[in-house]
Specification:
Number of strands: 10
Shape: rod-shaped
CATH superfamily of the largest domain: P-loop containing nucleotide triphosphate hydrolases
Largest sheet: 8 strands, mixed
Domain Terminase ATPase subunit N-terminal: 12-69
Low-confidence stretches: 5-9, 304-308, 319-347
Strand content: 5-15%
Helix content: 40-55%
CATH topology of the largest domain: Rossmann fold
CATH architecture of the largest domain: 3-Layer(aba) Sandwich
Radius of gyration: 41 Å
Distance between the termini: 107 Å
Strand order of the largest sheet: 3-4-2-5-6-1-7-10
Structural class: alpha/beta
Pfam families: Terminase_5, Terminase_6N
Number of helices: 13
CATH class of the largest domain: Alpha Beta
Length: 353
């Protein structure tokens, strides 16, 4: 077998021999292919140290020989031009590898790395929920809510004012924290949480933060400002001076435990005085029996009490065999005595009146 080439470069038998050797041919085979004596090829191998040449240098030598051969070719075909282009890109790639080996700088190996820090980097939006996250929160909200809580939700869609008298530990604060976050995300309305103490108001905040973590959103700040629409989640104690400086949907917790509630309510209700805003009041009374309060007063039934329907009111209980006398909020925020005998077998019930 003899090698025929049309370039001066490959007419050099030593160059041909080295390229064949790096392809895996033995000295004896190369000698036969080039019509040379085996000792001559062996001397070339030893003198030029073919085995010591690095693999990348062997590839570079092969690329150089092939691309020169194609460039000097007289009549080129389409495939020749494609191969020249391909080999040129490979030479460029090998040049980057050589620079990287000399400097250790990743930019030499991949130029795109240098562009990573160019220009202004967009900061992730703080307290931001994607549409997918909001949809997931809605699903969790409805799946986790009890029937009586869904009744509260329905009332909030139809009424601007909700008054809820409840038994203990039925998840009202937990529920309204979740409802308020979703309402703020959908409407952009501020949510103002007012409770008997700042510590109690922060219970809302903790529930909201935990709810957001279900979709991997870490809420921060006080107030919490939503990145979607700028709605604020504001947590206040019972200082009437601070209660009048905000605007938004109002949620007042533990109204029976707030000192001078009537005074506070007159001030705080102004925050939700606009027609598109709503107010929610809920609490557990200090005493379910109210025997001392009702002493000397005549018993009356719910049918005997006529109240103008200016706000939605309900009583929610979960205790079995419950009989209670309760005080409920009537029109205008005044506390009126109402004796109500609840069903013997009540386990989880809501009365709306």
């Amino acid at each position: 077998m003899h090698i025929q080439t049309d370039t001066t470069l490959l007419l050099d038998p030593r160059r041909q021999a080295s390229l064949l050797y790096w392809q895996g041919f033995s000295v004896k085979q190369i000698a036969e292919m080039l019509n040379q004596k085996a000792p001559t090829v062996q001397s070339w191998k030893q003198r030029e140290k073919w085995d010591a040449i690095a693999p990348i240098s062997r590839v570079e030598a092969s690329l150089e020989a092939r691309i020169i051969q194609l460039i000097l070719k007289g009549k080129k075909e389409g495939s020749d031009y494609k191969e020249i282009d391909l080999l040129g890109r490979q030479i460029e790639r090998l040049a980057r590898v050589n620079r990287y080996m000399a400097t250790g700088n990743e930019v030499d190996l991949n130029p795109n790395v240098a562009n990573r820090n160019k220009g202004e980097r967009k900061k992730p939006k703080k307290n931001y929920f994607s549409e997918e996250a909001i949809s997931k929160l809605e699903q969790v909200f409805f799946d986790d809510s009890f029937e009586y809580q869904l009744g509260w939700h329905k009332a909030g869609l139809a009424h601007r004012i909700r008054n809820i008298l409840k038994s203990r530990q039925i998840g009202a604060t937990f529920y309204f924290a979740r409802e308020s976050l979703l309402h703020a995300l959908k409407t952009g309305h501020n949510q103002v949480f007012l409770s008997a103490s700042k510590t109690q108001a922060y219970v809302f905040r903790e529930y909201i933060i935990q709810f957001a973590l279900l979709v991997d959103v870490e809420l921060a700040g006080d107030p919490i400002v939503l990145g979607n629409n700028g709605a604020k989640l504001i947590f206040l104690g019972t200082n009437s001076n601070t209660a009048q400086s905000h605007n938004g949907d109002l949620l007042v917790d533990e109204i029976f435990w707030i000192p001078n509630f009537q005074k506070l309510r007159k001030v705080a209700s102004g925050m939700a005085s606009q027609k598109h805003l709503r107010s929610t009041y809920f609490s557990t009374p200090p005493l379910w029996g109210m025997a001392h309060f009702n002493s000397g007063q005549a018993n009356c039934s719910t049918k005997a009490v006529k109240m103008p329907v200016s706000a939605w009111r309900s009583i929610s209980v979960t205790a079995r065999s419950l009989r209670a006398s309760v005080a409920v909020m009537a029109n205008g925020g005044r506390l009126s005595p109402l004796r109500m005998h609840l069903p013997e077998a009540a386990t989880s019930s809501t009365w709306t009146y």
